[in-house]
Design goal:
There is one protein chain. The chain is 42% helix and 20% strand. It folds into three domains: 133 residues, Globin-like (Orthogonal Bundle); 92 residues, Translation factors (Elongation Factor Tu (Ef-tu), domain 3); 123 residues, Nucleotide-binding domain of ferredoxin-NADP reductase (FNR) module (Rossmann fold, 3-Layer(aba) Sandwich). It is globular. Strands 4-3-6-1-2-5 form a six-stranded antiparallel β-sheet. The protein contains eleven helices and twelve strands. The protein is α/β, with parallel strands linked by helices. Strand 7, helix 8 and strand 8 form a beta-alpha-beta unit.
Length: 373
């Protein structure tokens, strides 16, 4: 397994700077092998290309961690049930993937790399299919939008109720969402912003960059209304509470990265009796701290919870000034805490660097990014 992981990483270095070419070749070959597969994908493919690369890189990087590798791929297989993927599709995809890798890598490709990717893909498809087959839930859930609240030009908080079947999730996880009325066959992942409940209601915090319209986030922020129907896929993600830990907890959230942190705090209000919980919540401007009033209400009724807001671009802000990753370091050390980090890629990178400098053990840190690391 270690040798396969090494060969995968070496060979990936040959193609990682040519992602557009790789994806273009892959999809062209895939649809040539099976034209019917084109119906499973959205009309505009750019977002789909990003997800393909992310899946490949994640699988390659976790090959030397069998437990993580297995969990990730089984979850990916469950998630891909929403596309109605069959075992025959996995075989066709493998042929197209190898063909794309060989073509883009060119003369740097060799037989060892080829065999390593064959072996890796065999393991990938086996685990994904096993995860799909073991899932007794529907491929996706229909959900009705209950409420929709705008916070400025680019952010919305909405609640939905999953219909017909209960949707099981854990605080800190995320689901794929489709808005079929506006963008059929286009899915995007969003963290669930509340803990599981008997009402089967999920909350999402959605931001569309620079207030722009289009794609799933734009549709959810600007066009979705109460009564609309969405589709939700199987929950994924491991940024969940460790049930065996007694360590105090640090949560760091940036922007709509508050969503999974809020869900974790809600879950802790039900089960926590002994752990101190420190939430740092950052944004550029005060009006972007849309979730602060709700957090302050929780602080008022739970003495083990503290919330520290921070703004980076407003010198008159009454709270902490600076990037939230910098603010966290002023309150450390955090070496004896379980740490949860969620936000933009840049914010997560900076916070992880700060925690590493503080000598926080890597296995005490869980994180989610809204964008590629």
């Amino acid at each position: 397994m270690e040798n396969v992981a090494r060969l995968l990483k070496e060979s990936w270095a040959l193609v990682e700077e040519h992602g557009e070419r790789l994806c273009g070749h892959f999809y062209a070959r895939l649809f040539l092998l099976d034209p019917e597969l084109r119906k499973l994908f959205p009309v505009q493919m750019s977002g789909q290309r990003d997800r393909l690369l992310e899946a490949i890189v994640t699988a390659a990087q976790t090959m030397d961690d069998p437990e993580t590798f297995d969990d990730y791929l089984r979850g990916l297989g469950r998630d891909h049930r929403k596309y109605h993927v069959t075992p025959e599709h996995y075989e066709t995809l493998g042929v197209a993937l190898l063909d794309g890798l060989r073509s883009v890598a060119g003369d740097g490709w060799n037989l060892e790399y080829d065999q390593a990717w064959r072996d890796a893909y065999a393991g990938i498809s086996e685990r994904m299919q096993a995860g799909a087959e073991a899932d007794g839930n529907p491929p996706f859930w229909h959900a009705e939008v209950l409420t929709h609240e705008r916070h400025g030009p680019d952010t919305a908080v909405l609640t939905v109720r999953a219909l017909q079947h209960p949707l099981p999730w854990q605080a800190g996880q995320y689901v794929s969402v489709e808005a079929p009325r506006y963008l059929p066959r286009t899915w995007r992942t969003y963290s669930v912003a509340n803990a599981p409940n008997e009402e089967n209601v999920l909350e999402f915090h959605v931001r569309t960059p620079d207030g722009g319209a289009g794609w799933v986030s734009g549709a959810l922020v600007r066009r979705t209304r109460p009564g609309d129907l969405l589709r939700l896929a199987a929950p994924m993600g491991s940024m969940t509470l460790d049930p065996d830990s007694t360590r105090d907890i640090l949560c760091v959230a940036g922007g709509v990265g508050l969503a999974p942190i809020k869900a974790l705090v809600e879950e802790l209000t039900r089960v926590n009796r002994t752990r101190w919980v420190h939430v740092f919540y950052g944004a550029r401007h005060p009006d972007e701290l849309y979730g602060l009033p709700g957090l302050e209400e929780l602080v008022a009724t739970h003495p083990w919870l503290s919330v520290t807001p921070a703004c980076s671009d407003d010198p008159d802000f009454a709270g902490e000034a600076g990037d939230v990753s910098e603010v966290v370091t002023r309150y450390g050390p955090w070496t004896a805490h379980d740490c949860y980090v969620s936000g933009s890629a840049a914010m997560v990178r900076a916070t992880l660097r700060a925690l590493a400098a503080d000598d926080v053990p890597p296995d005490h840190i869980r994180f989610d990014t809204f964008g590629a690391l």
